[in-house]
Design brief:
Distance between the termini: 43 Å
Number of helices: 7
Shape: elongated
Radius of gyration: 26 Å
Largest sheet: none
Order of helices and strands: HHHHHHH
Strand content: under 5%
Helix content: over 70%
Number of domains: 1
Number of strands: 0
Structural class: mainly alpha
Length: 199
C-alpha cells in the first residue's frame, strides 16, 4: 500500500468519524432541546397553578360582591378543588424533573424539587387550616394561632410582602435562566457546533 493510498484511507476514516460524531451530537442536542422545552412548559404550568390556588380567596370575595344575595361558595371547597385539579400538573413536574436529571444531571433538578415542595406545603397548609379539632378551632393556643397564620400566608395571596409569591417567581426565573439557552442557542453554533456546549 502506497503512502497516497494510506493517506486517502485515513482521510476517509477521519471524515467518517467526524460525521458520526456530528450526527450523535445533533441527536443529543435535539433531545436536550425537547427536554428543556418540556421542562420550561411544565414549570410555567405549575407556577400558574400556584397562583390559581392562592387566588381562591379573592375569587370567593369577588363572587360575594357580584352576587350579594348568594349562594356563596365555601372557600375551603373552592381551594380544595383547585388543589386537586392541580395534582396532575405536579405529577407531570416530578416526571419532568426525572427527565432533567437524566439529561442534565441531578443538580439541575434543584429548582424543580423546590417548586414541587411548594405544592406539598400548600396541601399541608390546607390540612392545617381546615381539618382541626373543635377545641382547636374554638380555643386555639398561641402556637396554634401562629401556625394558622402561617398556613393562611401560604394559601392566600398577600397584598404586601408576599414571600411565597416572591419565592415562586425566583424559582421560575432560575429555571428560565437555566434552560432557555437550550432553546435559543448561540449563533456561533452555526459555524462551530461544539461551541459552548453545555453538559
Amino acid at each position: 500500500m502506497t503512502f497516497k493510498e494510506l493517506l486517502s484511507y485515513l482521510w476517509a476514516l477521519i471524515t467518517t468519524a467526524i460525521g458520526l460524531a456530528m450526527w450523535q451530537y445533533q441527536l443529543i442536542a435535539k433531545r436536550r432541546y425537547d427536554v428543556a422545552e418540556h421542562a420550561l412548559t411544565v414549570a410555567g404550568k405549575a407556577v400558574q397553578a400556584f397562583h390559581h390556588i392562592r387566588q381562591a380567596e379573592a375569587s370567593v370575595e369577588m363572587t360575594k360582591r357580584l352576587s350579594p344575595q348568594g349562594p356563596f361558595p365555601e372557600l375551603w371547597l373552592v381551594r380544595q378543588t383547585r388543589i386537586q385539579e392541580s395534582a396532575e400538573i405536579f405529577s407531570e413536574l416530578e416526571a419532568a424533573a426525572k427527565l432533567v436529571a437524566m439529561h442534565f444531571g441531578e443538580s439541575a433538578t434543584t429548582s424543580f424539587r423546590n417548586l414541587a415542595a411548594f405544592y406539598t406545603a400548600i396541601c399541608e397548609a390546607q390540612t392545617d387550616m381546615y381539618f382541626r379539632s373543635n377545641a382547636e378551632k374554638m380555643y386555639p393556643s398561641d402556637e396554634q394561632a401562629q401556625r394558622l397564620a402561617q398556613a393562611n400566608a401560604v394559601l392566600s395571596a398577600q397584598e404586601r410582602d408576599d414571600t411565597v409569591a416572591q419565592n415562586i417567581e425566583e424559582i421560575e426565573n432560575r429555571i428560565d435562566a437555566q434552560f432557555s439557552g437550550y432553546l435559543r442557542p448561540s449563533a456561533w453554533r452555526l459555524f462551530l457546533p461544539f461551541w459552548n456546549r453545555k453538559r
